[in-house]
Design goal:
The chain is 36% helix and 0% strand. It has a domain of 32 residues. The protein is globular. It is mostly helical. The longest helix has 13 residues. This is CobQ/CobB/MinD/ParA nucleotide binding domain-containing protein. InterPro entries: CobQ/CobB/MinD/ParA_Nub-bd_dom (IPR002586), P-loop_NTPase (IPR027417).
């Protein structure tokens, strides 16, 4: 199993965009678990996924 982590300290540097692109790419090769610790849920929006409670 491979683990990929995207981290940056400053806001607005492209973490969500890079994460969404990596998720899309890696999901073509198999199952991907993506965890978004940001309460703004922008990753859900970038991937076109509904937010579940």
């Amino acid at each position: 199993m491979t683990t990929t982590i995207v981290v940056a300290g400053k806001g607005g540097v492209g973490k969500t965009a890079i994460s969404a692109l990596l998720i899309e790419l890696l999901s073509k090769k198999g199952v991907v678990l993506a965890i978004d610790a940001d309460p703004s849920t922008n990753l859900n929006d970038a991937l076109g996924l509904p937010l579940k409670d």
